[in-house]
Design a protein that fits this description.
alpha/beta; Rossmann fold; 5-stranded parallel β-sheet; two-stranded antiparallel ribbon; elongated
């Protein structure tokens, strides 16, 4: 909705991108002292792809968890163990229904939550970030936007029904619908297939570095979201009009 890099200093300090092996290469001794080659032109950005959670939708997952373990009488660590088990059932890849997911959760917690009671706890604390929502609408005027999110049926339906998150996007690529989840390369391939674009023409924005790295590995421009102003600056560096 996943480090710092210690550089060796030999004269001028060169920027190192931990996801770009070429940035670690030292100058060839045969070309040292010659004028630096012009940087390769950046491919035109034709599509911007956004993650959802902690990018334009905010939430406090610890508070969501507290609702479950307080109700069930379990400790935080006990609930995390349960969550680790049910999380492996493939709910966010659409491999198990909401009803079956809840059945397993109830069995592990010793609870008898109804689907409606589950939804109240499961959807607690979600809200759309109004500043980011405004940026998405501004970008939408000039660029197609896609949503690429690891999510599940209950979370997405709540966010759509409450905030209309789909209004920002031309395409919705939701993990539980396509059967793949980030950082699996297959879910990024869905972006390329639906858009018909080369990876170099796509920008992907996500808060998790592992997800960004996976997009870069396919040739997309990857931006790790840390805040709206930093995002604007990085988009502008790629030639995106913000």
């Amino acid at each position: 909705m996943e480090e710092s890099n210690q550089e060796e200093k030999t004269g001028a300090q060169a920027p190192v991108d931990p996801f770009n092996p070429d940035s670690f290469k030292t100058p060839d001794i045969m070309t040292a002292g010659q004028p630096a080659a012009s940087p390769a032109p950046v491919a035109e950005v034709k599509l911007i792809v956004f993650d959802m959670g902690h990018v334009f939708v905010d939430f406090e997952w610890e508070e969501v968890c507290r609702g479950f373990y307080a109700l069930s009488g379990h400790t935080r660590d006990e609930f995390r163990s349960v969550l680790h088990y049910v999380g492996g059932l493939g709910y966010e890849r659409g491999e198990i229904t909401t009803e079956d997911f809840l059945k397993e959760l109830n069995a592990r917690l010793g609870t008898t939550l109804s689907v409606d009671e589950f939804k109240v706890l499961w959807n607690a604390t979600f809200r759309e970030n109004p500043e980011m929502a405004a940026l998405l609408q501004a970008l939408k005027a000039s660029y197609p936007l896609y949503l690429l999110s690891n999510t599940n049926e209950v979370h997405y339906r709540h966010l759509q029904d409450t905030y209309g998150v789909a209004r920002h996007f031309q395409e919705l690529i939701l993990s539980y619908e396509v059967g793949h989840a980030k950082p699996d390369a297959a879910i990024y391939q869905v972006v390329l297939e639906r858009s018909g674009l080369a990876a170099a023409n796509c920008v992907f924005v996500d808060d998790l570095p592992g997800n960004v790295a996976a997009a870069r590995a396919l040739g997309m421009h990857g931006i790790q979201f840390t805040g709206i102003e930093a995002l604007k600056s990085e988009l502008q560096a790629l030639g995106v009009k913000v």
